[in-house]
Write a structure and sequence with these properties.
Elements: H1 3-9, E1 20-21, E2 24-25, H2 28-33, E3 64-67, H3 74-80, H4 84-87, E4 92-103, H5 107-119, E5 125-128, E6 140-145, E7 148-153, H6 167-176, H7 180-187, E8 197-202, H8 204-207, E9 211-214, H9 225-232, H10 239-250, H11 261-269, H12 273-281, H13 288-291, H14 296-299, H15 308-313, H16 334-339, H17 355-365, H18 375-378, E10 395-398, E11 401-408, E12 418-424, E13 427-438, H19 445-448, H20 454-460, E14 466-475, H21 479-484, E15 486-490, E16 498-501, E17 520-526, H22 535-547, H23 551-566, H24 573-576, E18 577-589, H25 607-611, E19 618-620, H26 631-646
Parallel strand pairs: 3-18, 4-5, 4-13, 5-10, 8-15, 13-19
Antiparallel strand pairs: 1-2, 6-7, 8-9, 11-12, 12-13, 14-17, 14-18, 15-16, 16-17
Helix pairs in contact: 5-17, 5-26, 6-26, 9-10
Bound molecules: flavin-adenine dinucleotide.
Flavin-adenine dinucleotide binds near residues 107, 109, 128, 157 and 161.
């Protein structure tokens, strides 16, 4: 892109991201003086005080490239490549000993500590995490824009699950005082964006011209063929393609006459939605780009790699005439199976997503860290990170500490302790735990614990976590959304596949913006992959893409995309953007089995079941252990791991 185009986009404007290049603080002092950032300078951490112990430490306000930020993963990659121990140096013994060491400070790790303490209140627990903030995927992005606090989730969006929360997960929610349906009723500001609808943006590179289309008749129910035809006529697509979209969206044809509902479901489970559209509904191939990314948000891959059956559950078009009976089928993926079953509403989005759950767990574990006691006060509570790792506290959370080894002292079968080695500030340290919960990612564990059985290590490597990016952009006002009449736009051909206003939620002292003149956060999602390959290979390719993309590239694409989509509503990327945080998750959602590519394993034989077996004093938690990317599964797996250790 030319320098002139860069200037139009505002690449030369001073926003908070200027001070964080690929996540590393440069010139943070100046930004702090402007009140934009806490003055975090990781580089001088060697001064003797760990960054998290300093009073100004507050990672939720960091902008730029977050998620798997620079400094959090390089040691893991060196370990994988066999280079780590060549240069690591000798480990320093901390002379500490804990009843439990938890590897990973996400919801699963925090829940494991909570469950352990609930049964053994007098124990000492250490939680180690490689990131500079706790919560794992449940991260908080906090902005100050126009003098007000703006919050958004940097990862985990909401309490929601395709299956009802288990007794264990629901019990934990109750202990924290979280009653999702009641909170949703009380806190959702449904009026704020009530008159705004959904849109689709057709970009010139994919569809020949830039055009935002709004007012789809199917948005609030099944469209009539006439209403749909009228709407589709406005799409910038050739006539044949438009006609096929109308046919697809309104079809009542039974393409599998003579088969029972179960037989039809079985057949749909064996072909991708792309194949269903091309070979069964027989649409023009030029229809596909309109639908290709409709599955990205949930699966991280497009319709070429998602079974048609799962797309039926997600309400994608083309299935009405099949008259499928509601309810699950043995060959449905994890995600849609539950959505096909009737269920009570049990869902709530905190303004910072499930980071609020992580923060409430931390408050329970280390009360001095966070004021308050209710879900209503957690959202604006400021966590005092200097309280997280105090020697006098029975529970300690040590950040920026990546575990690189966990070995039983003596024989595994009879050992009473595990040596845990972690790298912090470039130096290895060893500490000791009588029990260990690995609440980190499955594929890391073989490198940390080479003594695990070979078949278990192989099973740990099976799943490939799904790469995704949640981008948060603080903008000065949302007049452009108001002018265009949209709150959410699907952008199937662009860098991020969707753009939308953060949900309006008022909780405790936190109030979402009400007027279009007020600043707001825009959420954007990107899920890089390589269509045509098996799902796990697509994720590997997407991860490579994420790890090799600079913040500058992200920023240029974000500005270009917002300018083109919202520009006709008056948005100017050069002057309307206040701050950008790119939450990069190369290892995002836990891999969920996909029967287009994965075998149907017998009970107890799936990779996650083999991988999660305890080994000596080490048990395995994390959502990978369930092959299901949800908060409740992370909690359930923590509970199982703790019970295994306590009953051993
Ligand atoms: C972008 C995104 C959006 C999501 N949205 C939702 C949603 O709306 N609702 C929902 O229910 N679920 C959602 N999920 C899934 C949900 O976030 C996860 O299932 C859950 O939070 C996983 O928690 P966990 O503790 O098992 O793992 P994680 O959150 O991944 O935590 C594990 C922690 O261990 C750390 N770790 C790894 N290796 C090491 C090591 N060697 N040493 C130290 N630490 C290590 C990791 O870096 C991480 O911080 C989402 C996930 C993502 C990525």
């Amino acid at each position: 892109m030319s320098n002139e185009r860069d200037r139009e986009l505002g690449m030369d404007r001073t926003i908070t991201r200027r001070d964080f290049l690929n996540g590393i603080a440069i010139g943070a002092g100046a930004a702090a003086a402007e009140g934009l950032l806490p003055s975090l300078a990781w580089a001088d951490a060697g001064a003797g005080i760990a960054p998290q112990d300093r009073p100004e430490y507050y990672p939720p306000m960091l902008t730029g490239l977050r998620g798997s930020h620079v400094g959090s993963f390089e040691a893991a990659h060196n370990l994988r490549d066999g280079n780590f121990w060549k240069t690591a140096g000798k480990s320093t013994d901390t002379a500490e000993s804990y009843d439990l060491v938890v590897v990973g400070g996400g919801i699963s790790g925090l829940a494991a500590a909570y469950f352990w303490r609930a049964q053994k209140p007098d124990v000492r627990i250490l939680i180690l995490d490689n990131h500079d903030d706790f919560g794992g995927h449940a991260k908080r992005n906090e902005f100050r824009s126009g003098g007000r606090m703006l919050l958004v989730n940097g990862g985990t969006w909401a309490i929601e699950s395709p299956v009802p929360y288990s007794k264990v997960a629901r019990g934990l929610m109750n202990d924290l005082g979280i009653h999702p349906a009641e909170l949703a009723e009380k806190c959702y500001a449904r009026e704020t964006y009530k008159v705004l609808g959904q849109g689709v943006f057709f970009d010139k590179e994919t569809f020949g011209s830039d055009k935002l289309v709004t007012g789809a008749p199917g948005e609030f129910g099944n469209p009539t063929p006439e209403a749909m035809a009228k709407f589709i006529a406005s799409l910038p697509l050739p006539e044949k393609v438009r006609n096929d979209i109308v046919r697809l969206e309104t079809t009542d044809q039974d393409y599998f006459t003579g088969l029972t509902s179960a037989e039809k479901k079985d057949r749909l489970s064996r072909i991708s939605y792309k194949k269903y559209l091309l070979d069964v509904v027989k649409v023009d191939p030029r229809v596909l780009p309109v639908y290709q990314k409709r599955t990205h948000g949930l699966f991280g891959v497009g319709i070429d790699a998602v079974p048609a059956l799962d797309c039926w559950v997600l309400f994608l078009p083309g299935f009405n005439g099949l008259k499928l009976e509601p309810g699950p089928h043995p060959r449905m993926g994890y995600t849609p199976r539950g959505y096909a079953s009737p269920r009570e509403p049990y869902s709530f989005h905190f303004p910072d997503g499930n980071a609020s759950i992580a923060r409430m767990l931390v408050r329970k574990l280390i009360p001095s860290s966070t004021p308050g006691s209710m879900p209503e006060d957690i959202v604006t509570a400021k966590v005092d990170y200097s309280q997280l790792d105090r020697s006098e506290s029975p529970v300690r959370i040590r950040l920026s500490s990546i575990v690189v080894g966990a070995r039983h002292v003596g024989e595994t079968g009879t050992s009473r302790e595990v040596d845990i080695t972690y790298l912090r500030d470039g130096k290895p340290f060893t500490t000791r735990g009588k029990s260990v919960v690995m609440a980190c990612w499955n594929m890391m564990i073989p490198y940390l614990c080479p003594e695990f059985p070979e078949n278990q290590k192989e099973a740990m490597h099976y799943g490939v976590k799904i790469p995704l990016v949640y981008t948060s952009v603080a903008i000065r006002n949302w007049k452009s959304f108001q002018n265009l009449g949209v709150r959410h736009v699907f952008t199937p051909g662009m860098y991020h596949h969707e753009v939308g206003l953060e949900l309006a939620v008022n909780i405790g002292d936190y109030h979402s913006p009400k007027s279009p003149d007020e600043p707001v956060v825009v959420r954007m999602e990107r899920t890089p992959c390589l269509p045509g390959l098996p799902e796990r290979d697509q994720h590997r390719a997407g991860r490579g893409d994420l790890l090799s993309t600079s913040f500058e590239t992200f920023e240029r694409n974000i500005r270009d995309q917002l300018g083109r989509v919202l520009g006709p509503g008056g948005f100017g990327p050069a002057h309307d953007i206040d701050a950008i945080t790119v939450n990069r998750w190369p290892h995002g959602y836990a891999y969920e089995y996909n029967y287009l590519f994965d075998p149907e394993w017998p009970e107890g034989q799936s990779p996650c079941e083999i991988a999660r077996k305890p080994f000596g004093r080490i048990a395995i938690a994390n959502s990978d252990a369930a092959a299901a990317a949800y908060t409740d599964t992370a909690i359930d797996q923590a509970h199982r791991a703790v019970q295994e250790l306590l009953s051993a």
